[in-house]
Amino acid sequence: MTQNEAKLLVAKRAVGFISDGMKVGLGTGSTATLFIRELGKAVQAGLRIEAIATSDASSTLAKDLGIPLTNFDDTLLLDVNVDGADEVGQGLALIKGGHGAHLREKIVASAAQQFIVVADETKVVEKLGKFPLPVEVIQLALPLVTRQLKDLGLNPVLRPARNRTGPWITDEGNVILDCHCGVIEKPEEMAAEIRNIVGVVEHGLFLGMATLALVAGEDGVRELRP
């Protein structure tokens, strides 16, 4: 099974957790995109839902597929949020933000009664940290935050735009520092240290948020719980 086949398998399984009348969070990234496409097929076949997307890209895709969108003015609570992850560790601790949407992803996940992670086996790790930890930063504070992250030993690198002309700019107009921190032995402590830095908007550690992970591999889809 190729990685893309595994992602499609788990995306299809995740649609099975969506039922009529649900309010659904739509994630961002390659696996989440496959889920949105499969969900669009279900909507076109008659499934009635409303959704809130975690990025402009996911919102545009949902609109193109005919998935009705809502917002937090009208919908304060979501039934389920379905999103991918860059790493899935013990207790369903996650690193997210490879696609630069972790601020909105965390907001949407926080509003959901159930947060389902969709991933392939390559994303499951014993300890978080091999994937660089994204930190979203207010542009004005970039030099200050960079210095403080360096002082913490987190080796921050400014993420370049996809076309390599200038920095990556998030949907909220901020920049991203990717921290090459190695194995994260104490995720909760690191999360607190980063959040205490003035100018940091959000980081990519998702701790105590996921309620279920659907992980696809050669033997099919397995379910992981905290």
Output the keywords.
226 residues, alpha/beta, six-stranded mixed beta sheet, four-stranded antiparallel beta sheet, 13 strands, 29% helix, globular
Helices, strands, pairings?
Layout: H1 3-15, E1 23-26, H2 30-44, E2 50-53, H3 56-64, E3 78-83, E4 87-88, E5 94-95, H4 102-110, E6 112-120, E7 133-137, H5 142-151, E8 156-158, E9 175-179, H6 187-195, E10 200-203, E11 205-206, E12 212-217, E13 220-224
Parallel strand pairs: 1-2, 1-3, 3-6, 6-12
Antiparallel strand pairs: 4-5, 5-11, 7-9, 7-10, 8-9, 12-13
Helix pairs in contact: 1-2
Q: What oligomeric state is this?
A: single chain
Please estimate the helix content.
25-40%
Mean pLDDT: 97
Across the major sheet, the strand order is 2-1-3-6-12-13
Annotation, overall tally of beta strands: 13
Describe the structure.
- By secondary structure, this protein is an alpha/beta fold.
- It is built from six helices and 13 strands.
- It has helices spanning 3-15, 30-44, 56-64, 102-110, 142-151, 187-195, and strands at residues 23-26, 50-53, 78-83, 87-88, 94-95, 112-120, 133-137, 156-158, 175-179, 200-203, 205-206, 212-217, 220-224.
- The strands form three sheets. Strands 2-1-3-6-12-13 form a six-stranded mixed beta sheet. The protein has a four-stranded antiparallel beta sheet with strand order 8-9-7-10, covered by helices on one side. It has a three-stranded antiparallel beta sheet with strand order 4-5-11, with no helix packed on it.
- Helix 1 (3-15) crosses helix 2.
- The longest helix is centred in the first third of the chain and has 15 residues, at 30-44.
- 44% of the residues are buried.
- The model has no long low-confidence stretch (mean pLDDT 97).
